[in-house]
Amino acid sequence: MNNSLNPTFDTHQKALSINMDSAKYGTLAEIGGGQEVARWFFRVGGASGTVAKTMSAYDMAFSDAIYGVCQRYVSRQRVSTMLSHEYGLLKERLAPQRGHASRFFAFADTVRTRSFSGKQNGQGWVGIRFQHEVGAPASQILIHVQLWGKESIEDQETLGVLGINLIYGAYHLHEQPEALVASLADHLPQNRLEIDMVEFTGPAFRGVDNRLMCLRLVERGLANAAIFDAQGAMIEPSELFHKKPVLLQRGHFRPVTRLTVDMLERAVSQFVQEPNVDPGDLVIVQEMSLQHLRHAGQKKDIDAQDFLDRVDCLSALGYPVVLSNYDVFHRLAAYLFRQTSQPIALCFGVPTLLELFKEHYYQDLDGGILEAFGRLFKHELKCYTYPWKDPLSGALITADNLRVEPHLRHLYQYLHENHFIQPIRDYDPSCLPLQAAAILKRLQEEEPGWEKEVPAPVASLIRERGLFQRPLNRS
What we know:
The chain is α/β, with parallel strands linked by helices. The protein is 37% helix and 19% strand.
């Protein structure tokens, strides 16, 4: 049955097509959410041609006896151990009899569905280790999923469909990883889940850059945000943010300048003086939105290489990077509020602060700018603002002397006097004239001196790899 590229296949047809292919044979191990993926294979019929074993170990003692002790049962560590254990047993026991004709796989998930009280959303890890060709070394796909079902049964249904999509995609779409990513939400209602991390490894995915795959997750609306650690590896949000205070800097970072670094360092020095901020736990993160990556006025034109270049420069400075589709700050803040209960701060320049007070950004909210600011500044979020020197008048504009529209003056005064908006102090005056666009122009025209206006590690990386030398791709 040749259906590998048929985009109309529903979940039933995908599961049946896998069952009808005698070359695919494997194990399904599911913890927490129920045996939802295995159930699909048995529902459609012919599962004996696909399923060597299904298993579930809900009791912690049984789970630990099989897979070893771990600190968190819904974790990357646990799903990785499950895949390794089950795939190893499969090869050990069946390779002598079936290895010449079968493409083995082990599927695993460890998931917490919506709590019985209904107060906590579900989330979990799902993965597959598989042979893309008979006799090939194993390849692997790991994903982390947030479940937004209103009831536990909805999360279970989502998990079943997602698992079938993943297994089907691994076998039929491994040569088209971007299409595989897009297919993960096939036949699932909108707003039922969010896939905030995906990782491809192994010979089936040679040449795949996982950062680019996470860009596609956000681009296609499968995730609201994706995170790369300081080494450029994909991580799920709780690995970075859980129970940590957070300082986030939003920007274009094309390129990173000395002003960027000075702004961040000065904001950190002020934020750690807040009484509830433990400097040892502080997470400092850089964030780009899709809007920062798109050309003005265009919706789909993201230059993938340019995105990777910017991430590399930020990684060279040792910072984790968040890519998001949050165009306004109150939505970005809501994302951070979901990740941690500790203090949160943002830092940006005076021009961005002026943009924050433009009311047209909040026309979709019944309460307009007041509702937006109520959402942004709840939990006492802080905004640290770097001064700006007007290139025409030479005037220095700070959070202390900024003027907004007259009818918003008292709103600004309230936020400023109550320290929600604070000026960045003790900044380096030599950074004030630096403008990323002007530095980029000199860099591209090979004018001397641009290196002194960006951090040394970034300058070295740009020179070594020739970053930012070409115009952005407008295809």
